[in-house]
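User: Please fill in residues for this 332-position structure.
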C-alpha cells in the first residue's frame, strides 16, 4: 500500500498542477521542489505565488509527502484511542515504526468571486517493530471543503454534487455522514460561524469497527477497497472545483469586494492557527518544514475592529454569506 499511495499522489499532483497551469497563460509555472526529511522520507512541494502578475491564482500549494520514522510513547497513547490494536500504555522506550503519505491542496484565487478550496488525502500505517513488516494498524483520512467570499448557490450545488456522486459510488450513507463531519470540524466557536460552505471529511477509515461500511455489509473492509474510495475522491477534485474557478475568475469586482475577501481569509487563518489539528501536529513534528505546514496561509489577509461588512441586519451579499456560514445548508 505504501508504494500504491506514493504512486497515486505523485500522479494526482502532476495532473492538478498541469490543469491549473493550463487555465492561466499570464502566469509563470508552479515552482516544484523536492525535499528530504532527516528522520526519514521526503516529498515534493509545488507552490504558486504571484504578486507581480494579475494571475488567476494569488497563492496555491499542491504538495505531497511520504515520510517514515518512529512514534513516541505519547503519540502511541494518543493514537490508541482510535486504534485498539495499538498499546494504550506503551513503555517509555517503545519505538513503533510508521509510514505516512498524503497530498495537500490549497488554492487561493485572486478574484473575490472565486472561492478558495482545500483538500487533503492521507494514509498511515504502523508496524510492530523496526525489524518487522507486520502492520499493526493502518488507516486513511481525507477532507475537502469550499471557502467562498461571495455565495453563488450554483457553485455550492456543483461542488457538493460532485462529492456526493463520488461518495455514492462506494456507499449510500457516506456523503451525508462525511458532510456533517466536515461541517462540525470547520467551525470557529469564538465567531459562531463555519469557515466555509463545507464539503466532506473522514478520518481513521480502516478495517476496525466503523458505523459506515463501504459496501453496506458487516465484513471488514480491505485497504484496497478504502484506497479505491480515496482515489475516487482525489480524482474528483478537478471536476469539483475547476468549473467554478473558470466561471468566476474573470468577473468584475471592486475594492469593497476585495476588502471582504481579505476579511474572510482572516477568519480562515483564525481557524487554522487556533483549531486545525493538522497544523498543530505538523508544527510539533520533528524535522518539519514549517513553510509546507503553513502553505495554506494566503499571501494577504485582513482584520478590522467591529467591521460593518457582513452584519446580519443588512441585506448585502456579504451578510447573505454570513447567514449561511452560521447555519450549514444541504447543497446536494
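Assistant: Residues filled in for all 332 positions:
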Amino acid at each position: 500500500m505504501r508504494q500504491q499511495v506514493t504512486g497515486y499522489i505523485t500522479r494526482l499532483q502532476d495532473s492538478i498542477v498541469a490543469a491549473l497551469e493550463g487555465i492561466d497563460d499570464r502566469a509563470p509555472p508552479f515552482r516544484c521542489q523536492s525535499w528530504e526529511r532527516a528522520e526519514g522520507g521526503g516529498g515534493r512541494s509545488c507552490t504558486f505565488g504571484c504578486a507581480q502578475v494579475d494571475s488567476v491564482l494569488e497563492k496555491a500549494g499542491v504538495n505531497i509527502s511520504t515520510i517514515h520514522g518512529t512514534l513516541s510513547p505519547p503519540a502511541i497513547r494518543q493514537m490508541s484511542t482510535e486504534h485498539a490494536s495499538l498499546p494504550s500504555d506503551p513503555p517509555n522506550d517503545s519505538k513503533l515504526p510508521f509510514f505516512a503519505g498524503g497530498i495537500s491542496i490549497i488554492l487561493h484565487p485572486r478574484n473575490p468571486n472565486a472561492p478558495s478550496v482545500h483538500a487533503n488525502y492521507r494514509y498511515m500505517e504502523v508496524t510492530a517493530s523496526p525489524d518487522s513488516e507486520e502492520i499493526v494498524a493502518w488507516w486513511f483520512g481525507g477532507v475537502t471543503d469550499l471557502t467562498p467570499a461571495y455565495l453563488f448557490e450554483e457553485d455550492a450545488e456543483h461542488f457538493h454534487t460532485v462529492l456526493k456522486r463520488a461518495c455514492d459510488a462506494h456507499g449510500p450513507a457516506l456523503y451525508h455522514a462525511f458532510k456533517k463531519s466536515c461541517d462540525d470540524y470547520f467551525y470557529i466557536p469564538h465567531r459562531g460561524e463555519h469557515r466555509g460552505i463545507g464539503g466532506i471529511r473522514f478520518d481513521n477509515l480502516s478495517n476496525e469497527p466503523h458505523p459506515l461500511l463501504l459496501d453496506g455489509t458487516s465484513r471488514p473492509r480491505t485497504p484496497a477497497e478504502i484506497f479505491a474510495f480515496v482515489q475516487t475522491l482525489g480524482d474528483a477534485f478537478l471536476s469539483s472545483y475547476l468549473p467554478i474557478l473558470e466561471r468566476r475568475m474573470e468577473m468584475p469586482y471592486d475594492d469593497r469586494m476585495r476588502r471582504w475577501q481579505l476579511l474572510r481569509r482572516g477568519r480562515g487563518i483564525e481557524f487554522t492557527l487556533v483549531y486545525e489539528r493538522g497544523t498543530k501536529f505538523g508544527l510539533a513534528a520533528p524535522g518539519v518544514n514549517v513553510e509546507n505546514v503553513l502553505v495554506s496561509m494566503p499571501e494577504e489577509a485582513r482584520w478590522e475592529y467591529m467591521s460593518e461588512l457582513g452584519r446580519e441586519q443588512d441585506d448585502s451579499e456579504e451578510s447573505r454569506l454570513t447567514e449561511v456560514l452560521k447555519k450549514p445548508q444541504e447543497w446536494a
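For context: The chain has a mean pLDDT of 90.
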